[in-house]
Amino acid sequence: MTYINMIIESPLLRCIAVLILAPTIGTLLSGFDRKFTARLQGRVGPSFWQPVYDILKLFGKQQILVHRTQLAYAILHLFFMMLTLVLLVLGQDLLMILFCQAFSALCLVIASMSVRSPYSWIGSQRKILQMLAYEPTLILLILAVYLQNNSFLGFKVLERDTPLIYSMPLMFISLLFVIAIEFEKSPFDVASSHHAHQEIVKGTTLEFSGPFLGLIEVAHAYEMAMFFGLMVAFWHTSIIMGIVLALIGFILVLIMDNICARLTSWWMVRFMWTIPLTLSLANLIWLWR
Amino acid sequence: MEKVISSLFGMTHWVLLAMVIAPILLGGLTFLVQKREKLRTLLIWISAAIVLAGGILLVWLSTGNEEGIVQTWQWNVPASIGKYGFRLDLLSFGLESFVLLALLYVGFKIENGWVVFLGLIQTGLAVAAHFVGEHEDSLVLFRIDNLTRILILVTAVVGSAILIFSINYMKEHEKHAPEGAGSLGRFYFFFIGFLGFMLGLVTSNNFSLFSTFWEATTLCSYALIGQDGGEARRINATRALLINSFGGVLMLAGIFLLKVNNCGEDFQSLTGASVTVLPAMLLCMAAFTKSALFPFQSWLLGAMVAPTPVSALLHAATMVKAGVYLVMRISPHYSDYKLFMMMIAFTGALSFAGAAFLACTQSNAKKVLAYSTISNLGLVVACAGIESPLAYAAGLSIITFHAVSKGLLFLCVGRIEQKLGSRDIEKMDGMPYKMPFTTMVAMIGMMSMLLPPFGMLLSKWLAIEATIHSPFLLVFLATGSAFTVYFWAKWMGHMQIQGYHADKPVEEISKSMKFSLGYLAILVIVTGLLTMMIFRNVFTTMAAETFPGIDMVAKINSLYHEQAEFPSYLVLGCLALGLLFSAIFIAILVKNKNIRPPYLCGENAITIEEELNPEKNKLGLRSYDFYSAGGKVEHAVFSSYYFQNYINENRVSKYLNWISWLSMIVLLGCVVAAITIK
After folding, report:
1. What's the distance, CA B174 to chain centroid?
2. Residue B448's closest chain A neighbor by CA?
3. Smallest CA–CA separation between A2 and chain B, in Å?
4. A-chain residues within 8 Å CB-CB of B565?
């Protein structure tokens, strides 16, 4: 226990611990995803550790590229995703964390637009539309947090006595839609999908292969861990309840993934700017003081 | 008499006078020697150096030496001097009349009744404002405070860079200039003079001097927009003149009302008393016309027909900044009139979100930049209206950082346009190979709009955090911010599209262009690195001084400090590490044997040998050519989404204009209510 305390006390050790743990959590979540989806579809599914093996295997593959720029932006994508997580662990300004995350996504977009492949191009166009779709909702979420803590700092959330879910249930629901977009789940998996048989093949990540795809997969694992962490933070007073809440949220997203078909990107923007955005606005109204 | 003069003039006075007059004289000189290229170029370099050095010197001299507190520098003169009691305000009135007569002359020359009509009203108002009311015994002709210092620096630093860029641009431009285009001498006369007028505008305190410079910048922009001649330019130039004259009428009406009520004739008369609310509102509306906020945006969009340095000058260093300057100058005194301030903020926020939305539907690079300018100016006005020191600091930093980034981007677009012959974003293909330097510089400019530690994003962040107490604005800021990311992302992706080339490309670029672009790019990076420091040490103190003794400072003080403590070094460190790792990986991994052409369902027309060795590529195939049905070679064509089927720019503009006009009416209503109730 003393070691754990030591890690929690020191910001540097905390960051290092999270940087190591987060991709593991992220990949385990996708392992859970695959298992759960398989069971829903009446299959046995791969083992929980399959995504870990997949990523490790990618790093052993041949290093194939289209050009230099692509690699530079892929690295920036990963680094900024890591930075986002570090800032979150340090309890920094939430809005700034959101902007870092947006920049990370932007790097992926530029990376996949820079190659002359129409599939990758369409995927990245849709990825920008995804960003357009969820960004206002996330900004409103952060503003709602401010209204209760009188601070944009992340660690102020942890000093509260009551869980956020009591006062922000509608925000939690809209967060689930944002997470569905971020995790590339149906009906929002327009930019890139886990299934390579769709009309734009693999979309944003089409032109990445081998270790470079591995980099992006690691970044995705960080992103998954981060959003899972955000869901946990909705019930920060009890870590167990937090994880239960986050798992329920995650399972809801998975169920939605399995019962929905992919829809168009334009539909996604309209949907996100009507239902989740208005839900968040409605939630903001009763938080107003 | 000598005593009077020596008491009137100090070092700073001379520098200030020189800064206002020298550019106009240098412009005139350039006009005279326009045929002699070397001399002309030398004069332009000298003007740029004088503007830059003079601006910095002026700021340095006018900043007081007393410890801790930054002084406000004033130029007081007795109203009448000499034996015969020559009134100095007659002098400024004379200048004002001269400019207004010039406006009337232009109106008659182009035979536009509306311009003449507005010009006559302005002249009438100016004359009336001069003769009604009491004159003060002592005049404060010029005044330099913190806000002014920022604008002087912006004008001097960015303006001089644009001037240097224009040397080669205009030389090239003249070769292809359309029939009936104005001469280079005419161009530089107005162009260099513009900088002088702008410096005069931000430093002048007396209203008749202020309106002199205001009208002078309007006339200069008219002349510069119409530089290349032709029907389209004539129409756009006239529109700019009309809208800005309308703004001039509003402003002179405000000044007239102040004089009628014996409030005074300089900026100190805007004290926040209820008599001055209506004039303040009229001045704000005048500022909206100059800053091209909705519903007055059309003149700035039309202004892109001018040569690119003009656009850069109008958008980054001068013209539109004058409008937001006026709003920032007025707004802190009127925080008691909540509804009035809120409507100002609303107009700004509407422009922020609306212009960003319209920018998403444009593929014309200059138009995207123009809408982005309107959007950012809207944000400044919104910040000014939020009446919190934090927002005010955000506004100040937007004015500063936007000028540098936007100046850089306009110059890049100008260069790309001259090289590619098109300003369409869709045509910007393979830029990193064709123009590596310009692409890099343009990417720095665009990144600075979105990347966390850089000024523009920081300001947007502060603005959003400051609006937390104004729920109404929040929605506009949240959506506008998302649109901003959208249109920049599309463009940045387009700038990076390229094939693989084993060799390192070299760009042919003239030295003066490279110098000005590099200078602005370095400025963007340096201000980006120091953003938090500048914000903490400069902008927060300025904002705190602007709102002295208001308990609002205490109320949001914690918020204020949180922002100032953000560890931007983490973000910068991350960026540096990322770039370092990329460089290492690229050096190790990018070899010809690792390169493959992009995926085109296995139907690529080009083989990898042809891609890597251009001499083997006899058919001139591209990496995105593929075999379609029957073995025919086709290009893979892709373009960004512009939603032009869903969103009609004209129709959306009409809706937005209607809402903005409504908000103008509501603004008037608020003021009337504020006066009658008090």
Report:
1. 25
2. A103
3. 28
4. none
Q: Which of B452, B481, B590 lies at the smallest CB-CB distance from A135?
A: B481
Exposure b/e, B362-384, CB count within 10 A at least 16 = b: bbbbbbbbbbbbbbbbbbbbbbb
Work out the mean pLDDT of chain B and round it to a whole number.
85
Q: Which residue has the tokens 């083992």?
A: A47
Residue B593 lies in a domain: yes
Taking residues B151-177, what's their average pLDDT? Answer: 89
**pTM assigned to the model:** 0.92
The whole-angstrom separation of Cα B141 and Cα A208 is 64
Q: Which of A63, A66, A264 to mutate to test the interface with B (most CBs of B within 10 A)?
A: A66
pLDDT on residue B356: 93
User: Considering only alpha carbons, which residue of chain A is nearest residue B450?
Assistant: A103
Q: Which of B464, B589, B594 sits opposite A95 (nearest CB)?
A: B464
Nearest-CA distance B478 → chain A (Å): 5
The ipTM assigned to this model is: 0.92
Task: Give the number of domains in chain B.
Answer: 1
Which residues in chain A have Cβ-Cβ distances shorter than 8 Å to B490?
Answer: 125, 128
CA distances from residue B595 to A62, A110, B506, B618 in whole angstroms, order as listed: 11, 19, 22, 20
What residues of chain B lie within 8 A of the CB of A190, using their CB?
none
Which residue has 């920036």 as its token pair? Answer: A76
| Nearest-by-Cβ selection for A95 from B461, B579, B585 | B461
Greatest CA span in chain A, whole angstroms?
58
Q: What is the DSSP string of B602-631?
A: T-BSS-HHHHH-GGG-TT---TTEEE-GGG
CA separation for the pair B517, B524 (Å, rounded):
11
Which residues fall within 8 angstroms of residue B561, CB to CB, at 6 or more apart? none
Tokens 């400069």 belong to: B538
C-alpha pair distances (Å), B666 with each of B276, B344, B572, B670: 18, 10, 45, 6
Best CA proximity match to B211, nearest among B239, B263, B250, B242: B250
pLDDT per residue over A212-234, tens digit each? 999 999 999 999 999 999 999 89
Within 8 A of B622 by CB-CB distance, chain A residues are: 116
Residue pair A184/A260 in contact (Cβ under 8 Å)? The answer is no
Contact A76 B623 (CB under 8 A): no
B589 and A65: CB-CB below 8 Å? yes
CA B648, B653, B655: angle at the middle one, nearest 5? 100
Residue B559 inside a domain? The answer is: no
Token representation of residue B429:
């293909």
Chain A residue whose CA is closest to B489: A106
| Residue B633 DSSP SS3 | strand
The DSSP secondary structure of B111-122, one letter per residue, reads T-HHHHHHHHHH
CA distance A217 to A54: 10
pLDDT at A31: 92
Please state, in angstroms and rounded to a whole number, the distance separating the CA atoms of residues B127 and B262: 16
Contact B319, B225 (CB under 8 A): no
Domain with B598 in it = 574-635
Q: Which two tokens stand for residue B307?
A: 């040569």
β-sheet bridge partners, residue B625 = B635
Pairwise CB contact (< 8 Å): B598 & A139: no
Phi, psi of A185 (to 5 degrees): -105, 150
For position B555, what pLDDT does the model report? Answer: 47
Q: Is A50 strand, coil or helix? A: helix
pLDDT at A254 (0 to 100) = 93
Residue B419 burial (CB count, 10 A)? 16
CA pair distance A257, A246, nearest whole angstrom:
16
- B489 and A110 within 8 Å at the Cβ level: the answer is yes
What's the pLDDT at B627?
A: 82
Residues B300 and B358: beta-carbon distance below 8 Å: no
Residue B611 lies in a domain: yes
pLDDT for the residue A101: 92
